[in-house]
Each structure stands twice: as structure tokens, then as C-alpha cells.
Write a structure and sequence with these properties.
By secondary structure, the protein is an alpha/beta fold. Helices cover about 45% and strands about 15% of the residues. About 40% of the residues are buried.
């Protein structure tokens, strides 16, 4: 049984990834702060697909939480084949109006959170010649005035993914760069496709496809958007 770890698995893209990977027979380690949501999801996936699901509290902004989570996962499963570093938050606002606290919060989750999660699981993934997927964004290589902090965290995460890759050629690092997705990221989900949003299931479907490619193929980044989203670069 292959094992996948998903951060930010309580909602949105992470939850859809969990559902899709359980269907593929993966053992799952699900992390997020909303343990009640993880518990419900884990129970459902165990029952429906008969896979082993571990869920645990995870706050990627706290080094000790990431370390504890990794320890529990590695003790339970003995190793990890796939890591999806997906946990992330949005942050709007002009750069000259953002506060120290806002700036720090978004970098802690989207950039440092990715770094510390990958670092914690890397020894095991290296051993298994596994895959690390980091969910950044279509904005990880473009600019949006009014969302500069968020955008900067994703450019930085992109730099981390690529540097990790260069430092660890035996691991397949993949940057997933979705455009707008109908999740809690924009408040309550339920938007129409025609408004320019993909569904979280679209992201999960693409990821499962990528995982099934032959092991000698390294897909380094994928940028994908709804056909109704304006093509901006
Ligand atoms: O958002 P949402 P998405 N520690 O809000 C978790 C990127 N993206 O699925 O802790 C641990 O439904 C949170 O769990 P909880 C985006 O930047 C999205 O859309 O329980 N986990 C929840 O499970 C992000 O990197 C769009 O609150 C933490 C999850 O993160 C990724 O997609 C476009 C956490 C967020 O679920 C998933 O976001 C794009 C923490 N400190 C990139 N803080 C889009 N939706 O349009 C949050 O380009 N989480």
C-alpha cells in the first residue's frame, strides 16, 4: 500500500485530493487544524474504500506541530510515498496597507509552512524515491496588484520547490499551479463554472493522472485554469 500525506485536508482541494487518493487505494495521513472535519472525512473514506486513514491536528505555522505530525505519521505508516503540501491561506490588500501581522501570517502558512512540511517528510520520501507535490498557484509566476503578499508567498514557494528539487534529484517535485478553484478560499463554495472557477475535484483528478505517469517521468509544474478564467500571465 502506498501512503500519501495531505496538508490542509479538511476542506477544498486537500479534501478532494484525499477522496481521490483513497479511491486509488492509498493509505492516507490527513493534517489540518479542523480535527472534527478530518475525523468525519477519514471515517467516511475508511468505510467507503477500506483504506487506512490517520488524521491528526496540524498547524503548519508551528514547527513543533509539523514535527509531531510527521513523527506520528511515520510511526504509524513506517514511511511515505507522496506528500501534498497544500495548506494555504489568501491575503488581499495593497502592499503599503498590509500590517506586519498580516504579512507574517501569510508567509508563515504559504511559504514557511511548505518549507517545514517538506523538510519533515523529506528523509522518508527520499528513501522511497517518492513524490512531493506543492500546491502553489497560477500566480506563482505572475503579479496581481492588491494581492502582492499572497503572490509573493507563492513565488517564494515556487523557489523552494525548485531548490528542493535541485538538492534532491532522487525525489520528484511537482508544483501544482491551479487558477481559481471553488473552495472556502473565496468564502463559501458553490460558484458556477461559468464564473471562472474549477472544482476541487478537477485538481484532484489531474493529480491522480500525474501520479500514474511512468516513474521516469518528472512533471515539474502544471498550470491549469478554467476556460472561463481570463488568460493572464
Ligand atoms: O482553500 P480552503 P483551497 N495549518 O480554504 C488548511 C491554493 N490555491 O483548498 O486548518 C494547517 O478550502 C485549511 O484547514 P484548517 C491555496 O493557496 C487555491 O482552495 O482546518 N492547515 C484547509 O484545509 C492553498 O495553498 C486557489 O482551516 C491549514 C486548507 O488549508 C491550496 O490551494 C487558487 C493552515 C485550505 O482550504 C488549498 O486551498 C490558487 C495551517 N496553519 C491556489 N491554514 C483557489 N481556491 O482558487 C489553513 O491559485 N490550512
Amino acid at each position: 500500500m502506498k501512503v500519501a500525506v495531505i496538508t490542509g485536508a479538511s476542506k477544498g482541494i486537500g479534501e478532494a485530493m484525499a477522496r481521490a487518493l483513497a479511491k486509488e487505494g492509498y493509505g492516507l495521513a490527513l493534517g489540518a487544524r479542523s480535527v472534527d472535519l478530518l475525523e468525519r472525512l477519514g471515517g467516511e473514506l475508511k468505510e467507503r474504500y477500506g483504506v487506512d486513514v490517520l488524521h491528526a491536528f496540524l498547524d503548519v505555522t508551528k514547527p513543533e506541530s509539523v514535527e509531531e505530525f510527521a513523527k506520528e505519521v511515520l510511526e504509524h505508516f513506517g514511511g511515505v510515498d507522496v506528500l501534498v503540501a497544500n495548506a494555504g491561506i489568501g491575503m488581499g490588500g495593497r502592499l503599503d496597507e498590509l500590517t506586519e501581522e498580516e504579512m507574517e501570517r501569510v508567509f508563515q502558512v504559504n511559504t514557511l509552512g511548505v518549507w517545514r512540511t517538506v523538510k519533515a517528510f523529506l528523509p522518508s520520501i527520499r528513501e522511497r524515491k517518492g513524490t512531493v507535490a506543492v500546491v502553489t498557484s497560477d500566480v506563482s509566476a505572475r503579479l496581481i496588484p492588491g494581492a502582492g503578499a499572497y503572490v509573493a508567498t507563492k513565488w517564494a514557494a515556487r523557489a523552494l520547490v525548485r531548490t528542493f528539487q535541485m538538492e534532491n534529484p532522487e525525489v520528484r517535485f511537482m508544483e501544482l499551479r491551479p487558477g481559481a478553484v471553488d473552495t472556502h478560499f473565496y468564502g463559501k463554495p458553490g460558484r458556477r463554472i461559468e464564473e471562472g472557477f474549477m472544482k476541487p475535484e478537477d485538481v484532484a483528478k489531474l493529480f491522480v493522472y500525474l501520479l500514474k505517469l511512468p516513474p521516469h517521468v518528472r512533471v515539474e509544474e502544471v498550470m491549469f485554469r478554467s476556460v472561463y478564467q481570463k488568460p493572464e500571465y
